[in-house]
Amino acid sequence: MNEGELFSGRADRRADVQGMRPGAEQGGAGAEVRSRPQPYPGEVDTIGAKHLGFAPEEYLARIAAVRGRMSDQGLSALIVTDPANIYYLTGYNAWSFYTPQLLFVPSSGPLTLFMRDMDARGATHTSWLPPEDIVGYPERYVQRPHIHPFDWVAFALRQRWEVARASTSPVGVEMDSHFFSPRAFRALVNGVPEWRLVDSFELVNWIRAIKSPAELALMHRAAEVTTAAMTAALESIAEGVGQHEVAAAIAAAQIRGNDAAWGDYPAIVPLMPTGESADTPHLTWTDRVFATDESVSIELAGVHRRYHVPLARTAVVGRPKQELVRLEGVVAEALAAVLDVARPGVPTAELARTWNRSLALHGLEKPSRLGYSIGIGYPPDWGERTISIRTEDDQILEAGMAFHLICGMWMNGYGYELSESILITDSGADTFTAFPRELIRL
């Protein structure tokens, strides 16, 4: 880029953001800033504000919790790019996360959602934010080799008088978000040199770990979709049937749901390691047909309003191998032992130790983690990326936490997978579904 193009780009950027100074007279750099209070969810005249996913008080409590943790971490502001966290705080929900988007959370005052201009109107349909706090960047910034949307966003934040206000302390960034690229980070570093950008260490994700009663109601709805999807899978598997046909049946059930709950799209597609390939997880499907006496591990999730309830079961067309029958009993015993000890006040490491001891009695081990926290999910993952159930983690269980316990035993040339999504209650642990906990013979 030559010097003329550089200055031309700056001029374009200034033109892009003219008039983006809410609550202030249009004047020079010294124009007085009229600070606005935090808008109240539900009081804005937009479709999204009129149809909130949760009560206004719940959204305000979430924001207050985020700001409390920001204060604890010494942050003056937080940059949120994880679509699950944006949804959690604002209700915004659309398939727009493949282009850069950013929710700016200052220590006080309004939140600002930056996104592609063509998606900005969609945010008024699904979020509670007022239109003046939903800002679209120009189309010419989308997928260009020499400029990035956050170049524009950095300048827009400056025009909205957010830069100086947040320069007193570090600004937190979701460094491990799937949708925050190195180029996005570089654009912010270059665009706002006054800021010291630091890792927020999944700040919002950790607040999401304890679910409210309203969130749990959605997860119970999702569990009904889960049951419908697993039922569809098992009813469609037969000798000579292609894996892709089973995947189609699962997808239809995941979307259709049942009379009580419609289904949302899952963060992860159905997984179906089959036969000898069942000795490894995370395989999807081909047109391969099922054969007699062949097992398949099915892992899927029911989803309702972005809340996920995963479930895995192993089925066999015909007669199972003896080693599978052995794993069936061992896994059922070990999982029951884990569920018996799961309750508030117990460290997650104790669940992992209980599982490991049960397996060791039978000469078995599982090197990978036993489970992880679940709730809101967007592709490519339905986990919350916070709490893991393994011996190295000592997070204390609390009522309202939800986990996917994935009891996968991937051996040499075969495998057995069984999982449960569980809720920690005041007295113990409940499963979200009531599917038979056994090797399913078809």
UniProtKB/TrEMBL annotation:
Domain of life (superkingdom): Bacteria
Domain Peptidase M24: 218-426
Coiled coil feature spans: none
Domain Creatinase N-terminal: 62-210
CDD domains reported in the protein's UniProt record: APP_MetAP (cd01066)
Region (Disordered): 1-37
PANTHER family according to UniProt: AMINOPEPTIDASE, XAA-PRO AMINOPEPTIDASE P-RELATED
Name used for this protein in its record: M24 family metallopeptidase
Protein's organism: Brevibacterium casei
